[in-house]
Design goal:
By secondary structure, the chain is an all-beta fold. The chain has strands at 3-7, 10-12, 18-25, 32-39, 46-51, 58-60, 68-73, 78-83, 92-100, 115-116, 120-124. Strands 2, 4, 5, 6, 9, 10 and 11 form a 7-stranded mixed sheet that branches. A hairpin with a 6-residue loop joins β4 and β5. It is globular and about 40 Å long.
């Protein structure tokens, strides 16, 4: 059974850093593109970043570009989102999702992803 599990969330002060992880069990991650999304309190879920199956293409929302870095380790079936210079607006529940690499849809299209994790909470406050 395929399952995505996020971890690494927590509470940090503004300006701090966190690295969250996403592990796929039940299949090989290398065949999938990965998306990271977040939902802030009272807001809709939004796209944060994505990475292609062969790590050859990454995308970022304008709000996180230059501060967040997406990466993957297919040997560990794990994707990462390194978050630096965190702002209070970055707080929320972060989700990873996967879809086949061949899906010709914009990376922010949430309904193009087949499998979602349950999320990990990120809190940014002083």
């Amino acid at each position: 059974q395929l399952q995505l599990v996020e971890s690494g969330g927590g509470s940090v002060q503004p300006g701090g850093s966190l690295r969250i992880s996403c592990v796929l069990t039940g299949s090989s991650l290398e065949q999938f593109a990965i998306g990271w999304f977040r939902r802030a309190p009272g807001k809709e879920r939004e796209g944060v970043s994505s990475i292609g199956s062969r790590d050859d293409r990454t995308n970022y929302a304008m709000s996180v570009k230059g501060r967040f870095t997406v990466s993957r380790d297919n040997a560990k079936n794990t994707a990462y989102l390194e978050m630096n210079s965190l702002l209070p607006d970055d707080a929320g529940v972060y989700y990873c999702a996967i879809r086949p690499q061949w899906v010709p849809a914009n990376w922010m299209m949430q309904n193009s992803y087949n499998l979602w994790g349950k999320g990990t909470q990120v809190t940014v406050s002083s």
